[in-house]
Design brief:
- The protein has 62 residues and is mostly helical.
- α1 packs across α2.
- A two-stranded antiparallel sheet has the order 1-2.
- The protein contains 2 helices and 2 strands.
- It has one domain.
- 55% of the residues lie in helices and 8% in strands.
- β1 and β2 form a beta hairpin.
Amino acid sequence: MLTLAARGLGKIDAAGLRGASLVSTDELTAMAGALAAFGLVPIPPGAPVPDRLIITHQGDRA
């Protein structure tokens, strides 16, 4: 997962907005999975932003 995420990030880093259009759905899914694994709290469309966006401990949202 992290390799796919890193490849997608590499495309964006190398080519900016053009690179973003080159990211595959697998790379995008891996990037989202990596963010979730590292503790980023997902915000559903239309939902308010929570006070804490990062889970620092299991069940704790920072």
